[in-house]
Model the fold of this input.
Amino acid sequence: MTANSAERLYEGADWDFATLQRIHDACEKIAKSELGLDVYPNQIEVITAEQMLDAYSSVGMPLYYKHWSFGKHFAHQEAFYRKGLMGLAYEIVINSSPCISYLMEENTATMQTLVIAHAAFGHNHFFKNNYLFKQWTDADGILDYLDFAKGYVAQCEERHGRLAVERTLDAAHALMSHGVDRYPGKKKLDLRAEEKRAGQRRSHEESAFNDLWRTVPTGPLKSASTLSDERRRTLLGLPQENLLYFLEKSAPRLQSWQRELLRIVRHIAQYFYPQGQVKVMNEGTATYVHYRIMTRLHEQGLISDGNFLEFLQSHTNVVFQPDFDDPRFSGFNPYALGFAMMQDIERIVVNPEDEDREWFPDIAGTGDAMAVLRDVWANYRDESFISQFLSPRLMRQMRMFHLHDDPAETAGIRVDAIHDERGYRRVRRELARQYDVGFIDANIEVVDVDLAGDRRLMLRHTVIKGARLNEADAKRVLQHLADLWSYDVSLAEVDATGTLLGEHVSSPRGIPAAA
Amino acid sequence: MHIVDRRLNPSSKSLENRQRFLRRAKALVQGAVKKSAQDRDIKDVLEGGEVSIPLDGMNEPRFRREGGTRDMVLPGNKKFVEGDILPRSGEGSGKASEPGEGDGEDAFRFVLSRNEFVDLFLDDLELPDLAKRKLAEAESEGLHRAGYATSGSPANISVTRTVRLALARRVALRRPSADTIAQLEAEIADCDEPRRSELLVEIDALKAKARRIPFIDPIDIRYRRFETVPKPVAQAVMFCLMDVSGSMSEHMKDLAKRFYMLLYVFLTRRYRHVEIVFIRHTDRAEEVDEDTFFHGPASGGTLVSSALATMHDIVRSRFRPADWNIYAAQASDGDNSYADGDVAGRLLIEKILPVTQFFAYLEVGEAGGHPGFELSGSSLWTLYQRLQAEGAPLSMRKVSDRSEIFPVFHDLFKRRRHQERAAS
Done:
């Protein structure tokens, strides 16, 4: 653009597709040349409020298999939306290549600019560069895989009945959060190949089927007791914390299509696994990027003062952090915390104080904020990000304090640390821990199977800090687990010292519908 | 960069999921619908709206942890210093607003559309299985495409099908194509004499063959075939008969109106097209519009037969029983002049009942009355009761309170057991 400052991207609130294109190009110029972002190609889709609600109910994905629970969420959210209790997000962005951003049609031109800068560049860069996404998700394959999943589920419903499929999916959904591999090592998921392999497996089974095998006499079975305990566990791949993986591979009575359904749910869970771990960083990145781009656009005279004020108004709403005693408070606002930390890092890099030099010797005063930030965005997740980059100054600014609530302590809740010299490190460590997946999800593993006896599946919940499982919910989930396993299931709750705190047991509700 | 306009995509992508959810929660939703129907005006109820169902059976369980020692970092410290002990309840403890604890969702509220609501509302109701229904189920006929035929009217020639068959035949019989002949003729122009005569013979043979095998033969010709198929009658007319003489109070009219509304909604679920005819009567009857029907002032004596006669006339002139399903609902406080009984009875038995699907008589009483406990019925009630005992297909109920309207309606149209068997 030949710096004709009078030439605005748009006037007023109206926009059309040409405007969107101009906005995108202007944002892209800043994002690439000034911020040095590296993004997937963008695809911008304009949708209505109803379509936004649709997207909400299927966790933001443009296509998904059919299941009643999505209908439930839709009904629920629609009721809230109609009553005006809930506003809709301005955008949804999908980690795929091309990166799809949904824009609501009723957004004003300024909002569209904000959203494009936020989603199509901020989130997009983060998706493409953060190590978690690189390691765990396959942005190229996800949409094809979802399409395959949708078709496969529909096909299963046709072949095996809707009820049987629904039961399997219900059970799989209940275990979804325990259907992820937490440790890399296995090769990266390639969803396209996965989809192809599922088809091959199926056709191989069909072509290799021969009823004669059933009639071949088998020799005396090798008694399970001849295997040593150790050997048996190794053969079963135990202990295993990916419950869905274990069931898919080892549940004795599942049909092959049921295994495939578990696999689908597991893959999708894996795809979403990183998103929960980088909520603060992801939103912080996007917010920081949109703030930089919008400011720059305003400086270049591409958007008017009035429109810039409109932007600032929604921006401040987004990064608003109520205090703990405010009725609106519901935990840390990831936008607010993320944005504040990004800005703080920029300040430390460009304009450090003595305290910052002491706390962040590596980055303080190096001068190139974008280089530092890009490195941070690529190589950290919430937990490590906070434990490394939360500065004392920001802790003071947000007036953070740490509460320790021990039920055994009758006097009350203790203020363990506050934003002072003695407390900085403890507050930072505790806050980082709040974002640590190791602490967020219950640690539940399959530990053994009683092969010689009643085939009982044994699980163990390692209790941390005395937090036991909710009794009613655990019972329901175990019921689903038992239905898939088709024999009894028991879950022992054990604390760090190995003391048994309690046990839940569940028996299957009769054989699976299609067995 | 691509910009895609998705706004024109078919909407309600999640409709299927919603239906699955409703199917799963059907028993619960139906209970909620019935309950809200009791609390609200019928008019509002049928508008659909928000219902709330218990979450039981609809929940999606996950492993969840609770209790234990908790650590939390919160923003906005104002006066705490390290080592302070905060009481667990009361002001300033910060406990009321802990993150990630909210699950107190024991009831699930959502909005049903009008259609969904009415479907569920009327789900266990069915049109009564009357003997006469067969008569009125006489069907009209419509045309349907039914493949192709070798004979038919020229207007129905199917060109593509004909040409396709002709082509197949020409290929099968090796009809020389015009191109081949043209090629040979071109070759004649520059070739020596012996070859030339050879070619001429060949061309002649080909031309002869082409003449023998026509381009289009009568056996290629196909006609689009249509079949007449019976179509069920998909229209109904609903007659609302009401006594508007002085003895009918506003309350009674209100009861009648509610009943008519339910019947109308019910019929519109079953028929594509429903017409309503309002006939009000004192000692003479007239067809009126809705507003006059319910609110127009009228006075006079009471002759039920006049209304029945008017209805009969209207049926004869406008609603051929072969084309229309005829429903009638009569509301009255039960007064009728004694002398009119016989005339009305005869009219009903001979003229009205044979052509109607269903005839309901609703006797409305004052609020606080005790229908069903009266020792002697009203004159109309006694008359209809006698007819019913003689085997006339009449339905009759007494209503004196708003809350009874739906139960009475429900009772009249309850799905009978033998129908359930037939349906399943």
User: Anything to note?
Assistant: Chain B has a mean pLDDT of 76. The domain at 232-423 of chain B is CATH 3.40.50.410 (Rossmann fold). Chain B has three domains: 14-56+107-123, 147-225, 232-423. Residues 175 and 212 of chain B are 9 Å apart (CA to CA).
